[in-house]
């Protein structure tokens, strides 16, 4: 099985902890648009998380894709720095897989908690040559007063999915590129982070 994490796309320098871990999915992004009223300019919300993506292959006919965000902070999951749970809503992750793989038949693994099964999302910001699959979070958040970069709130549920593709031997041999876009609303203002492409 192959696992990969997308390269960095970040709005501020990496912390030493992130560099030491090589944690490409654990860096912050600054809020897009205006800062939520409850948050000061010196403590902007930072969206972070770590989700493993991978694949296993039957080179003749079948490929299985995996999305695994299970575990604990700061190694897995989704969290927002400098934000209270009451400020957070509309959390989702959109994964972009090559259109040539469609359709991908997704199912939730037993470890999945409060994340919807990824579904084709025609409303997602397009990336040429890729199909968007969005999973949405409906669970609760927990506030932590101290973290690597300050106080933070974690999503209590974590995503875990498997996707089955048939007739995909060529992609298994040559690798599969993908992107992931995380979005969480903080006080009604979206915080976003796009990472990729990564090849698995």
TrEMBL record:
Domain of life: Bacteria
Taxonomic classification: Bacteria, Bacillati, Actinomycetota, Actinomycetes, Micrococcales
Entry protein name: Secreted protein
């Amino acid at each position: 099985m192959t696992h990969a994490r997308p390269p960095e796309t970040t709005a501020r320098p990496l912390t030493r902890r992130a560099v030491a871990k090589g944690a490409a999915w654990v860096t912050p992004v600054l809020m897009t648009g205006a800062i939520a009223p409850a948050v000061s300019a010196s403590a902007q919300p930072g969206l972070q998380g770590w989700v493993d993506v991978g694949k296993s292959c039957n080179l003749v006919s079948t490929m299985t894709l995996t999305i695994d965000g299970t575990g604990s902070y700061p190694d897995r999951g989704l969290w927002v720095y400098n934000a209270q749970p009451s400020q957070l809503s509309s959390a989702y992750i959109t994964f972009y897989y090559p259109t040539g793989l469609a359709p991908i038949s997704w199912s939730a693994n037993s470890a999945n908690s409060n994340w919807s099964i990824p579904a084709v999302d025609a409303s997602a910001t397009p990336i040429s040559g890729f199909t968007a699959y969005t999973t949405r979070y409906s669970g609760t958040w927990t506030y932590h007063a101290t973290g690597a970069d300050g106080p933070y709130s974690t999503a209590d549920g974590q995503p875990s999915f498997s996707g089955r593709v048939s007739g995909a031997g060529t992609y298994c041999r040559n690798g599969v590129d993908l992107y992931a876009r995380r979005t969480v609303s903080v006080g009604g203002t979206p915080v976003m982070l796009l990472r990729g492409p990564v090849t698995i």
